[in-house]
């Protein structure tokens, strides 16, 4: 897991999954490269590579209108071949990010059942459904709290 920077955008554009592109378009982004440059410059964002050095996931935290931390993940077309790297990387990513962002939200399009299960596996809890003109999304939240003030360890996510 390493920081995702603008110099990685061209490499990721070549391997970004078509469903990730579709989701970015649903969210109003018309130029994928511009969107990725914006993400690299404004978000706390990292990438995970597989053993062959291919980027399999770009993920991190951005902020919504209420200044709440929103976890996001952008997948490469190699996700199935690199599933283990993606799974381990995303779990490590969430554990790393929760130290800075003890509460994270996330929304996933209802059409992606595997991603809904992935969110639950990462410790996110479904808390609602929202509808836009282009899709229905499951809203998730993940909260973590320290075991005690002196412990660097994080306990299980809080249930809502």
General description of the model:
By secondary structure, the chain is an alpha+beta fold. The chain has a single domain, classed as Gcn5-related N-acetyltransferase (GNAT) (Aminopeptidase), CATH 3.40.630.30. It contains five helices and seven strands, in the order βαααβββαβαββ. The strands form two sheets. A four-stranded antiparallel beta sheet has the order 1-2-3-4, sandwiched between helices. Strands 5-7-6 form a three-stranded antiparallel beta sheet, with helices on one face.
Q: Quaternary arrangement of the chains shown?
A: single chain
On the 0 to 100 scale, the average pLDDT is 86
- What is the highest CATH level, the class? Alpha Beta
Global Rg: 15 Å
